[in-house]
Amino acid sequence: MPPSKRKAGSTKAKNKKTTTNFIIAGENIPPGERRKLCVDVAKLYDFTDMDIPIEVVRGKQDGPILLVCAAVHGDEINGVEIARRLLKHKALKRLKGTLIAVPIVNVFGFNANSRYLPDRRDLNRMFPGFKKGSLASQMAYRFMNEIVKKCTHGIDLHTASKNRANLPQIRACLDDPEIARMAHAFKAPIILDIDLQDGALRKAAYDNNIPMILFEGGEPLRFNEKVIQSGLNGIISVMREIGMLNKLKSKPTAKKKRKSFIAKSREWLRAPHSGILSVKKHLGDHVKKDELMATVSDPFGESTFELRAKKQGIIVGMSLLPLVNSGDGIFHVADFVEDESQIEKHVDQYEEQLNTDKDPVRFLN
Asked: What is the DSSP string of 300-353?
């Protein structure tokens, strides 16, 4: 089935849940308490339990129920660190409502350093799942019914797939006003307005009237400090926007508002030939039509093939492999209504605003 979009406004009006009596994984968690729990999903060959670890943080006041989850793809670990830092963030002392943090959804893939489950299925193509289906389908069903359906909002944390890297970005279906509000509140430099795909977690959440956005940044099996900071800052910003954080008594310092730019289209530029890749452009760069982006050559450097931009845009994702086959995706280029040269400056300024003490280099360059 092709990807689909839902009608605008379908999540906000029906998305009201009470948190007075909050039961999850068989436990009732009262207001003001914090608890670590496990949701059992399967067993290993030796009958060892495989559980999804979760932590529930409840404010003393009623409010939204936000799910923050990571590692739906087991090798995408930036989100694991984002969730860990979120759970230690001092802002949670002012929490209104409930935070459900799930640092590792795909526990099988995480422990095997793999994107997939043992049956080679992609968990993010199996939602909402089936109770008696495949292992992946059963995990999706359990996660949906034990955790996701108890929430009013969601943020799903991802990175690029194997041997690729992504610029920090939000992926969301902006037809829905509540999702659009969350997407803009995250304040990532770029928003990709992407259709809902059958089998994906955010599509299943949407079908249950739960607005969810997806954050992408970095590469699998690697921590990137700027991406982690970007994700953490974005989650806190969304929590403020949806009313989960009480205002501080002290007057906040004035900060320059950041704007997110919305991509109107996007496409992958593919290798023109098999060989050894030499890139000329990097994540966040603005490229003009026909500009040289990379070359592919033989081991002797005699036969060279050029990869040029089909149109102007911003590089939001790229391959990290220097060895390519003909047709491999090399650059993911997004096209914007606004002046792309200004967006490139915006991305650079966004980087500068992040704390660069641990990672002073440019995004993955």
From this structure: TS-SEEEEE-SS-EEEEEEE--SEE-TT-EEEEEEEESS-HHHHHHHHHHHHHH
pLDDT for residue 264: 83
CA separation for the pair 282, 291 (Å, rounded): 13
Q: Where do the CATH 3.40.630.10 domains begin and end in the chain? A: 22-241
Give the residue from 264, 159, 144 showing the smallest Cα distance to 206: 144
* pLDDT bucket at 222, cuts 50 / 70 / 90: very high
Q: In CATH, what is the architecture of 263-353?
A: Beta Barrel (2.40)
Residue 281 CA, chain-centre distance (Å), reads 24
- The strand pairing partners of 57, in sequence order, are 34, 99
Q: Pick the residue with more confidence: 252 or 89?
A: 89
Task: Enter the tokens of residue 318.
Answer: 């790229």
Other C-beta atoms lying within 10 Å of the C-beta of residue 304 = 13
- What CATH superfamily classification does 22-241 receive? Zn peptidases (3.40.630.10)
CB 260 within 8 A of CB 187: yes
Task: Name the β-bridge partners of 65.
Answer: 98
All residues at 6 or more sequence positions from 2 whose CB lies less than 8 Å from its CB, including other chains: none
What's the distance, CA 321 to chain centroid?
22
Q: For the stretch 1-17, what's the b/e string if a residue is b when 16 or more beta carbons lie within 10 angstroms of its beta carbon?
A: eeeeebeeebbbeebeb
**64 neighbors 113 (Cβ within 8 angstroms):** no
The sheet carrying 323-324 orders its strands as 304-308, 292-297, 275-279, 323-324
Helix axes 225-241, 177-186, angle to 10 degrees: 130
Alpha helices in the chain (DSSP H): 78-87, 107-111, 135-146, 177-186, 201-207, 225-241, 340-353
Reported as a pLDDT band with limits 50, 70 and 90, residue 345 is confident
| pLDDT confidence tier of residue 250, bands split at 50, 70 and 90 | low
Does residue 8 contact residue 176 with C-beta atoms inside 8 Å? yes
